[in-house]
Hints:
Strand content: 5-15%
Largest sheet: 8 strands, parallel
Number of strands: 8
CATH superfamily of the domain at 9-217: Aldolase class I
Shape: globular
Order of helices and strands: EHEHEHEHEHHEHEHEHHHHH
CATH class of the domain at 9-217: Alpha Beta
Amino acid sequence: MNKSIRLTGLIAAAFTPMKSDAMLDLDRIPSLVEHLLKDGVSALYVLGSTGEGVSLTLRERQHTAAAFVQAAAGRVPVVVHVGHNSLQEAQILARHAQQIGANAISAVPPYYFKPDSTRSLVDCLAMITAGAPDLPFYYYHIPVKTGVELDLNDFLHLATQRLHSLVGVKFSDTRLHAVSACPYAERYDFVCGVDEMLLDAWMTGMRGAVGTTYNFAAPLYNRLIACCKQGQIEEARRNQARASTMIKVILKTCGRPGFKAVMGLIGQDCGPHRLPHSTATPAEISEMHQALEAIGFFEWGRKHTD
């Protein structure tokens, strides 16, 4: 098994393009991937929360994963999220990801009937990863969505014995102290999953980040990372503050549907959301556009250099 992968830099949690009827629009994926690569992302994370993977059918998820892998054409790693309430379906998705040439898989645990112990969690993930024994695996830790709040240290202690393909954790949690206090932090590749905390995550030692807003503001975050590498922490804080302001504006005007709607404002329309997610209305998008212009987003959020 190839366990050499290590995710660094910005990993775009890619949107899944959809037509006006909320059916897949796979033809838009190549241009979306080209946009992301031009913006400087270092990897793609597909069919996660941002990609609405849990709202798609198994066949739709397979077609979408294959389209992203084909469009990336080996230029950047593609991580496919395969989590599912049915472990059998998750294993099928994992096997498919390996067959199409994905670079890694990731998964949340079942979240309706939740694992009730650390051993149960590891058992669930072991069943999923058995479908793709040759692919590195990132556990998707997002307790706010899954409700799985089991101790991370206990999980990793048992995982070292049972999950031989585990290489890291997509840490979508604001409690970064859990990572800084984790004795396994150096052994496994922790990647930040909260865009507003990229700077804080960098200070804890994380060097990769998976995020929604990297789809349209990667230049801003890449400047933030460059500042961190150069020891320009105050400038890094300024960029992080700008990112947080941008996110607040989007949430205030459109709510979470605004993130996908921003793509249309930068020429990469990804279409509507699929229910149960709502889709931003034209009036909301117009208000968001004006608010983003007012804070200067289209200047500092999109330009590649200062």
